[in-house]
Hints:
Blueprint: H1 4-16, H2 18-27, H3 30-46, H4 50-53, H5 62-74, H6 77-84, H7 103-115
Helix pairs in contact: 1-2, 3-7
Amino acid sequence: MTGRKELWELVEQGRQNRAAVERRIGEMSEQELVDLYWTHEQVVADLKDDSLTAHLDRPLSEDTLDDIARWVVGQGLDHYEDVMAEDVALPGRVPSGEAVPFWGGEITKVYHDRYGIPVRFKEDPPPAKAR
């Protein structure tokens, strides 16, 4: 099972060596991909809580908020925890010149390439076989 510890290890590794993380994701089992994807989605969703976003200028699109949350996750566990504890404010946008990390997209791509479908929900049965 891939949980938060593994997610944060991949985030840290990816900050240094994206290719290594892409290889690791490509080698994961179907269950590991599902677990990692949904762990990542939960961590991102935690950052969208009203208590963390109340200070942001409105209107703020869901896509913009999603990009901001994914960017925060991409900064690593320490930054994420600082934002969650409200020691550091959630930024109003992804900083200029910064890219939104690739985690969710890479997991989705590997899963779709392998199984021909979007990442399944955790409670759904796994696909019958890979392509």
